[in-house]
Write a structure and sequence with these properties.
Blueprint (H helix, E strand, L loop, with lengths): L11 H23 L1 H4 L1 H23 L6 H18 L7 H26 L2
């Protein structure tokens, strides 16, 4: 095992561990999109899909995780926002919550897209 620094992720084992978690999160997002119940807002969408995207952002921003391709992140954003817009009214949320939640979703995906762009265009 190689070590090149004193940081928490500056050795092969820690990098492998981080990468395994990163890939699990990417796989979770993909799996949610494959199954209707996985992306329903009142099921996997808000319980698993969006938290997985948020954790992926943290791993990539703060732990040098490898993000998905920028086009993949853009597709995820477009798809999930369409799902959100199609399903949110059925849940009868407060209009202020609806708008604020959509902004949070957009911002989360935008951060991932920016990270992916920066990573894959180096």
């Amino acid at each position: 095992m190689g070590t090149w620094g004193s940081g928490n992720f500056e050795n092969d084992g820690a990098g492998d561990y981080r990468d395994s978690i990163t890939y699990q999160l990417i796989d979770k997002v993909e799996a949610c999109f494959e199954h209707e119940e996985g992306y329903a807002l009142d099921e996997g969408g808000e319980a698993e899909l969006m938290p997985s995207v948020a954790m992926l952002v943290v791993l990539c921003e703060h732990c040098d995780g490898i993000p998905p391709a920028e086009a993949v992140a853009q597709t995820w954003k477009r798809t999930y926002l369409q799902i959100y817009d199609d399903q949110i009214e059925d849940l009868a949320p407060n209009p202020a919550f609806r708008a604020e939640r959509r902004k949070v979703i957009e911002a989360t995906f935008d951060r991932l897209i920016a990270i992916a762009h920066s990573f894959w265009t180096r």
